[in-house]
Amino acid sequence: MLRFILRYLQFYAVADTKYQVHSPFVFDFALNVLEDDREFYVFNTAEHLRKIIEGNSTKIKLTDFGAGSTAGNQKEKTIGSIAKNAASRKWQCQTLFRLVNFYKPKTILELGTSLGISTIYQASAAMNSKFITLEGDPQIAKLANFHFEEMKIKNVELRLGKFEDTLQLALNDLGKLDYIFIDGNHRLAPTLLYFDSCLEFAHNETVFVFDDIHWSDEMEEAWEKLKAHPRVTISIDLFYMGIIFIRKEKKVKEHYLLCPLSWKPWKSIEFF
User: Is 2-43+88-268 a domain of CATH 3.40.50.2000?
Assistant: First the structure.
């Protein structure tokens, strides 16, 4: 926890707001995703569902193929503790919704369904998209599918199994990849492997989203290697997630650490 706090303070000290961004492409991102404060219809219903899940004391046995959650690698957990410790937070989910809402992908892939909260946010922003989400744990997958039914989410197909077994087939079935959210197996080698696999199906407008890029030293190393990849031209570090673009028109790499203006209101003047 101390390491995470120190990393956040380091990020906060150097992060810019939209007023320090000189790239039109990244300014559009900051304006339409990071600074969008509208309340969309799904926000209240998804958060109501989250509260119900967090209050669920039923214990289930887990099969964790990744690096685990902040609560540790216990074999048995309550559904409520999973929601509190492993599910994406409210502000993260809202960012994901706004990303999908702004870029309007037609094909979406998610690695790490968990209880389905982040999936519900993203799917609600693109009801006509083809959306495949991958989950390794059968008990978690069963719960996520139940939550999709409760929220009347019809455009999501959940596939069960290790990412190593399900990723390639999902990519083949999608054909091309407009948007991907990687939130599972938070380790260096798998993260880079997933990126390389997805890159074969990516195009100039593909949006890559990586969760928990500062979660561990290993994930920070993965993030640095992703930024250095020869096809990556733009990276945006929001601390709690990182976003990557492979825009060919960008001849020089651009790397940004961004935060909402509300975090640093004194940076509303470009001089600062």
Answer: no
